[in-house]
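Operator note (shift B, R.M.): manual run for Alpha/Beta hydrolase protein requested after the automated queue skipped it. Running by hand, logging everything below so the morning shift can see what happened. Input copied straight from the record, untouched. If output looks odd, do not overwrite the archive copy; leave it for review.
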Amino acid sequence: MRAHLLTAAALLLSLEASASVTIRKTDRGPTGYEVDFRYLNATAKRVLIGGGIQPFTDQFHTTGTSFRINGRYDPRDYKPGDFYVSNPSPQLPAEPAYKWPYEMSQSEGSLWTYTTPLPSGTYSFAYLVDCNYAPNCSIDTGNLVIDPDLPPFLNVPGDQVASSFQVPFDARFQASPELNTNFDYALDTIDPHLHRGVIKTANYTSLGSIHPAPGVHDFTIYLPAEYGRVSGKKYPLLYLSHGAGGNGADWENLGRMSHIMDNLIRLGHIPPTVVVMPSFYNLDSESPRFIYGNKSNSVPVPPAHLVRENFERFLFPWVEEHYDVCRHASCRAYAGLSMGAVLTYEMFVNATDKFDYYGMFSPATNAPYINASSVAANPQLAHKGIMIAHGLYDFVFPQARDLQTALDAAAIRYLNRVTPFGSHYWNTWQDELWWFGVKVLWKVLPLGGQTGR
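Run finished. Output pasted below as returned.
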C-alpha cells in the first residue's frame, strides 16, 4: 500500500465517499501537521479510532511495563520528544478515569469526523463502531471497520485488520534536544521512478513441517527499483520475519518496510536488495506452540527448528529458482522481530552456513544459549554480522540482555541498538530495521570497534 506524502487517501469531496484520511501541512504547532479523519456511518451511535494508534507519553512518565494515566497525553497536547508506546497502562485507584482521545464527532447526519495534530511516524488504525476496545471488536459484526479508501496491504483477506498512514517530520515543531523522533525514513521515496521498489505477495507449495501434506504458503516480496533492469544481475537477499500471531504482510502494512528499503538504497547505505517476508503461522493447521529453549508462546505456530527445516527444504530453493537473488552466505541475511527474532537466532545457530548477517529485533529468546564450546564446534558463529536491538521500554529487554550476555561470554561480536522511545511495537521495529541497514547489513566482516562509526 502506497500513500502520497501529504494525502494518505483521496480527499473526501462529497458525502458519497465512505471514508478518508487527509494529512495537512499547517506550518503551526504543536506538530506542523494535522490529520483529518472522515467516516460515513448512518447507524453508529459512537465511533472511536483505534486498532493501533496510541496516546502519547514522554521519557519521564513511562516505564518498561506501563505508563500511568497522568502520563497519557492527547496528541493535541503534544510536546517535542513525545512518543507512543504499546505497554499496558493499568487503571490505578487514585487516578481519574481515562478518556480515549481519538473519539469522532457526528455531524451532517451520517458523517463522523475527527481532526488532530500528529508528529512524525507511521500510524495504524481502524474505526471502532459502538465498541470501546479493538481486540473486542469484530469485523464480522461490523464493530471494527477497516478504512475502505485506505485498504491494508495483505495477501489473504482478513490477515490484516488495520490501515496505516505516515506523517512527516517538521523540525520547527518536533525537534527535541532529548530525543530524535524523526521517522521520515519511512516516507515514500522522493524519486519514485528511480527509487521506488515493487512490493507484492507470492505463494509457494511445500509439505507441512509437522503433518506431511502439500499446502500453499504465502510470503511478501520487495523488489528494488533496479530489479530487472540489469541483465543477469543477482541481488543480495534479506529474509525478514514477522512476530507471533502475524503474517508476511505485517512488515509492509504496519512497518512500511518498502519505504525504508527504498530510502536505505537511495541514500547509499545498502545496494539494491531483495527482501522476502515469509509467513510461518500457516505451515500447519495443527501446529504446537512456537518453542525455543525452556519457554513457549501461546500463539499456535510451529517450533523454530521445524520452521527452519521447512524453509530450508521448500522456501529458500523456491525463491532462488524464481528470482534473481544471491545464493552465497556473504550476500544473504536473516532478520525478524519478537518470535521472528527467535527464528533468526535458530537460523544463526543451525543454518550458519546460509547467512552472514542476522538482525534480532526485540528478541523473545530464552536459554539455553550457545557458549564457547558451540563456537569451538562451529567457528563460523564468530564471523557473522549481527545486530541485537530492542526498545528501552520493551518487555523483552531482560531476554535481549541475557542473549547479549551469552554472546559476550562466547566472544561473538555484534552491534547493539536500544531504541530510546521503543516498546514492543512497530515504531521500534521500524527504527531497528533502519539502523540494521545503516550499520550492519552488507558491511565488511568481521564487525569491529569502527563498524558503523
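Quick read of the result: Residues 304-322 form the longest helix (19 residues). The CA atoms of residues 196 and 225 lie 5 Å apart.
Leaving this for review. - R.M.
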